[in-house]
Structures are given as structure tokens and as C-alpha cells.
């Protein structure tokens, strides 16, 4: 019994001397750990002579309870003291403004693409996506450009290690995919997406750029439809007062082929530089779908006609926002991107 009184005395004294959490925990291990003194005292109950055992056991348990209560209280005290100390040592200023939440935004190229989709959606066009990795057959041959065709020089590109598999040079091969999938239904789609060309990178050309292709196929589709559609589009995007000019041109997959210009506002200080003094600015290539291409898509050119156009939305964005370097688009410079 005197052992127990001794244990209680020195354990209590040591607990009182433990001022912080670390020493308290060490105390706890010393008395209540697997080899702790309190546990040893409890284990000793079995070896006490019978007549003393009950009293000893009760006393041992009382001490165990009392010590563990004191320990919990001391631990809570120590934690509270530590918290108060840290609060006074490093005071919190709860009136400081919070950190601003940075807001993301759509890339300017995406914003303009969506404007273009909206304009065409209003005219009943659907968005149709096709692959960026193409074969030579679809990118060139089925578009009326056999292997020897000189027009291929305009569209030099990247070749994969698989013969005949290339990165598409324009969105026009999508025309073949959509025709083969839709034939003999009429078609009214735009085909947006990334294109690739083997180019020297300059302020005006990149090896990677976006295009938006348009394709309409049906019975009695005429050049007038082409001109009306493109004029409506150009005015929605650049302003209702825009004049639209059609020049004859050449593409192997359209016949006749045209290039489309808009007049540029004369009061824009950049007008002369942009239009090289002509007042006109090219925005796209277009034309009536070549009968060979219609046939390659599965349509009978005696019954069906169609028109197609292709534009570079980044170029259009550059015009709209007076951006003078196409490399800004994929340059990831936040100073550029955050302006839009
Ligand atoms: N594919 C042509 C180009 O990349 C553009 C175009 C598309 C022209 C459709 C006519 C018809 O330059």
C-alpha cells in the first residue's frame, strides 16, 4: 500500500512540473505506457495476499483514474496556453482583405470561334468535327489534287512515319468525310479545327493554325447562295455597313473559285497598312464544289451542287483586335491573353 501512495505522490509531483505538451506526453508514456508504472501497479494486484488484495485493488484503480483525469486536464491546459501564446506572438488581423480569386477566361481564339459558330448556327449550319491526322488521299487526291498536281506546293506539310499519313493542311478533307457520311442528304455544316503546314514562322504564318470550313450541298445550290451566305456572315462579324467583294481565284476543289474581301473602315488608322493601300482585305477562299469532289463524296454532280469556303479565324481575330503577330496565339503570354 505504501508503494501505491509513493507512486501517486511522485507521479502527481512530476505531472505538476510538466509544463508543455511534449513533457506531458512523456509523462503519460512513463506511467501509462505498455511498461508504465501505473500499469505495473495494476498488474501487481494478482500477487497481493488475499486479505489485502481488495483494498489494494481499489486503491490502485482510484489512483489510476485520478492520475489519468489530472493528465487530461493538464494536457488541455497546455494546449490552450500554447494557442494563446501563438495568437499573441503572431497576432491575426482578421480585417485584412482576402486573397482575390483569379478568374479564368476563354482564349481569344476560342471566343472568336464561338462567335463564328453562333453566326452560322443562326443560318442553320451544324458544327462537324473531323480528324487532324489525315491521309494523303483525303487531304489531296479526293479533293482533285493528284500526286503530280502543282497546287500541292501551296500545302506542304508534316509527314508521319506511316507512308501517306500526314497532318492535314486545311479543313477541306473534312468535306469528303461529311459527304460520305451524309450522302444523299443535303448538307449544311461548318468544319472548324486545327491545320498544319510546313512554313517559315513569321508574324503572319505559323506551322499550326485554325480554319473554319463551310460546306453546303443540295439540289439547286447556286453561287448566289454562296455570295449571300458569306455576305451575311461578314456583316454579322465585321459590321452591317461592310462592303463585300468577290474576286475570281483558283482552288483545285472548287469551280469556279473565288476569294472574298471586305472593305476596311477608312477611319481606322491602320487601314492603309492592313489593306496595303487598296481599302480591301481578304477574309477567305471559296467556290462551288468541284464535280469531281462531289462525286468523290458520293453525290451525283448532275443532280447536286454545292458551295464551300475556308477561312482562318485567327486572321479574322487579328483584324478585329488589331493584333499584329500571329505567334501571340499559341505563345502563352498572359500579358497578351489577359487583354481579351
Ligand atoms: N482549303 C482552302 C485553303 O486552305 C480554302 C478553301 C476552302 C477554298 C474551301 C475554297 C473552298 O486555302
Highest-level CATH class of the largest domain: Alpha Beta
Quickly count the domains.
Answer: 2
Percent range of helical residues: 40-55%
- Taking all Cα atoms into account, the compactness measure Rg is 41 Å
What small ligands are held by the chains? Answer: phenylalanine
At CATH level 3, the topology of the largest domain is BirA Bifunctional Protein, domain 2
Structural category is: alpha+beta
CATH architecture of the largest domain: 2-Layer Sandwich
Residue runs with pLDDT of under 50 for 5 or more positions: none
Through-space gap between termini: 85 Å
> What is the overall silhouette?
elongated
Q: If strands are numbered along the chain, what order do they take across the biggest sheet? A: 1-4-5-9-8-7-6
Q: Mean pLDDT score, rounded?
A: 92
The number of distinct β-strands equals 9
Main sheet summary: 7 strands, mixed
Structure annotation, total helices: 12
Task: Kindly describe this structure.
- The strands form 2 sheets. Strands 1-4-5-9-8-7-6 form a 7-stranded mixed beta sheet.
- Helix 1 runs parallel beside helix 4 and helix 5 packs across helix 11.
- Strand 6 and strand 7 form a beta hairpin.
- The mean pLDDT is 92.
- It starts with a helix and ends with a helix.
- The protein contains 12 helices and 9 strands.
- It is elongated.
- It is 42% helix and 19% strand.
- By secondary structure, it is of the alpha+beta class.
- It has 2 domains: 88 residues; 230 residues, Bira Bifunctional Protein, Domain 2 (BirA Bifunctional Protein, domain 2), CATH 3.30.930.10.
- Phenylalanine binds next to strand 8 and strand 9.
Amino acid at each position: 500500500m505504501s508503494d501505491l501512495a509513493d507512486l501517486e505522490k511522485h507521479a502527481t509531483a512530476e505531472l505538476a512540473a510538466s509544463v508543455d505538451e511534449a513533457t506531458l506526453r512523456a509523462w503519460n508514456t512513463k506511467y501509462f505506457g505498455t511498461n508504465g508504472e501505473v500499469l505495473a501497479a495494476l498488474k501487481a494486484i494478482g500477487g497481493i495476499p488475499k486479505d489485502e488484495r481488495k483494498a489494494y485493488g481499489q486503491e490502485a484503480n482510484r489512483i489510476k483514474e485520478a492520475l489519468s483525469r489530472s493528465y487530461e486536464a493538464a494536457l488541455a491546459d497546455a494546449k490552450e496556453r500554447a494557442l494563446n501564446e501563438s495568437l499573441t506572438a503572431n497576432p491575426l488581423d482578421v480585417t485584412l482583405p482576402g486573397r482575390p480569386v483569379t478568374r479564368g477566361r476563354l482564349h481569344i481564339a476560342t471566343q472568336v470561334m464561338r462567335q463564328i459558330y453562333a453566326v452560322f448556327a443562326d443560318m442553320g449550319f451544324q458544327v462537324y468535327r473531323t480528324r487532324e491526322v489525315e491521309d494523303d488521299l483525303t487531304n489531296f487526291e479526293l479533293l482533285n489534287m493528284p500526286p503530280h498536281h502543282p497546287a500541292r506546293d501551296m500545302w506542304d506539310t508534316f509527314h508521319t512515319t506511316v507512308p501517306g499519313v500526314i497532318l492535314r493542311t486545311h479543313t477541306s478533307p473534312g468535306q469528303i468525310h461529311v459527304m460520305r457520311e451524309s450522302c444523299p442528304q443535303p448538307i449544311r455544316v461548318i468544319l472548324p479545327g486545327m491545320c498544319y503546314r510546313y512554313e517559315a514562322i513569321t508574324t503572319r504564318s505559323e506551322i499550326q493554325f485554325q480554319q473554319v470550313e463551310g460546306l453546303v450541298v443540295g439540289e439547286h445550290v447556286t453561287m448566289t447562295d454562296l455570295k449571300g451566305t458569306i455576305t451575311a456572315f461578314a456583316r454579322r462579324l465585321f459590321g452591317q455597313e461592310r462592303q463585300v467583294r468577290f474576286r475570281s481565284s483558283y482552288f483545285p476543289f472548287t469551280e469556279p473559285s473565288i476569294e472574298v474581301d471586305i472593305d476596311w473602315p477608312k477611319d481606322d488608322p491602320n487601314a492603309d497598312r492592313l489593306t496595303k493601300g487598296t481599302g480591301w482585305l481578304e477574309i477567305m477562299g471559296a467556290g462551288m464544289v468541284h464535280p469531281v469532289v462531289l462525286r468523290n463524296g458520293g453525290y451525283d454532280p448532275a443532280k447536286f451542287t454545292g458551295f464551300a469556303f475556308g477561312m482562318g479565324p485567327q486572321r479574322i481575330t487579328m483584324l478585329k483586335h488589331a493584333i499584329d503577330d500571329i505567334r501571340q496565339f499559341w505563345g502563352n503570354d498572359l500579358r497578351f491573353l489577359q487583354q481579351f
